[in-house]
Amino acid sequence: xxxxxxxxxxxxxxxxxxxxxxxxxxxxxxxxxxxxxxxxxxxxxxxxxxxxxxxxxxxxxxxxxxxxxxxxxxxxxxxxxxxxxxxxxxxxxxxxxxxxxxxxxxxxxxxxxxxxxxxxxxxxxxxxxxxxxxxxxxxxxxxxxxxxxxxxxxxxxxxxxxxxxxxxxxxxxxxxxxxxxxxxxxxxxxxxxxxxxxxxxxxxxxxxxxxxxxxxxxxxxxxxxxxxxxxxxxxxxxxxxxxxxxxxxxxxxxxxxxxxxxxxxxxxxxxxxxxxxxxxxxxxxxxxxxxxxxxxxxxxxxxxxxxxxxxxxxxxxxxxxxxxxxxxxxxxxxxxxxxxxxxxxxxxxxxxxxxxxxxxxxxxxxxxxx
Length: 370
What we know:
It is built from 12 helices and 12 strands. By secondary structure, it is an alpha+beta fold. Strands 3, 4, 5, 6, 7, 8, 9, 10, 11 and 12 form a 10-stranded mixed sheet that branches. β5 (277-286) and β6 (292-296) form a beta hairpin. α3 packs across α8 (155-173) and α6 (101-124) crosses α7 (128-146). Mean pLDDT is 90; it is low at 1-18.
C-alpha cells in the first residue's frame, strides 16, 4: 500500500472511530442553509402587500378605505409609477398603462396579490420553487421600472439584484424539511409525478443542481453588471447616471410666443428625487444675444394657467406656489404665461424661453412665433 493510500485509510478509520456524523447530502443541506434567505425574501413581498391590504386605512365618509389601493386617493400606490417614469427602462409600457385608468387599477391589484402569494409561498415553503420564480420575475420588473431610483445607495437597484440572486438560490434549494412542501411531498401524487418537485420542492440530482447553479449564476452576473452599466456606467464607461436622481430637471418643448407676448410651452420634470419638486421662481424670453425681451417674476408665474397631463389625484403635477410654481418628478403639463407687462416682442426674432429654479438652476428651449 502506498503512503498516500495508507494515510487516507487511517483518516477514514479515525473518522469512523471518532463517531463523526456522515456528510449530509447537498439536496438536504441546501434548503436548510437558505432557510433564512427564503424567509427574508418572502417577508419583503409580504410586507409590501400587507401594508397596502391591511395596514394603511383611513376613514372617508364613514367608510374605512385602503388608501394605497384607493384610485381616487392622493396616496394611491400607482403614484410611484409616475415618479419612476423618467428613468424607467420600459418607459413605453409604463406610459401606456398610465394612460388607461382601468388598466392602472387592475395592474395595482394584480401586483399586490402577486406579492402576497409569492411572499406567503416563500415564508411557509408552499409551492416554493414556483414562488421563487415569481420572486425572480417581480425583481426583474422592479429593476426595469424603478432601478434608477435611490438618492443614497442605489436603493432600488440593490434590492432588485439581491432579490434575483436570492430567488435563484431558493429555486435550486427548494423548501426542504422546514416547509409545507415537505408535507405535500409525502402524498402519493408526488410519488407518481416527478414533475411536482419543480413546482413544490424535492431533491434534485447533482447534475441538475450543477447545471442550474451555473445557469442562475450567469443570469445573476449578466443582470447585475448589465443593469449597472445601463443605469450608472462604471463598467465599460465612466460613472454616470442615466437619469439624475439627485437634482431636478425640467425638459421644455413646443414653446410658442403669441403676438402679444404670451407664451405657451410644455414642461416635463424628467429627473430628480421623488420626495421633492423643482421650484420655478422666474422666467424670461431672451433674444439671440441673451438680452431679455420679456420676463416674469414669482408673482406673475403664480398666475400661470397650468393644464396637467395626468388628471389623477395621486399623479405628479405642476402647481402654483406662494412664489412661482413647482413640478414633482414625472409631472407633465402645458403651461400658459400671460403677456408680460411692458414686454416688447419683435416678430420674427429668434427667442429662447428660460426658466430659473429657486436654487439657480436654469432650463431653456428655443421658441417659435405663432
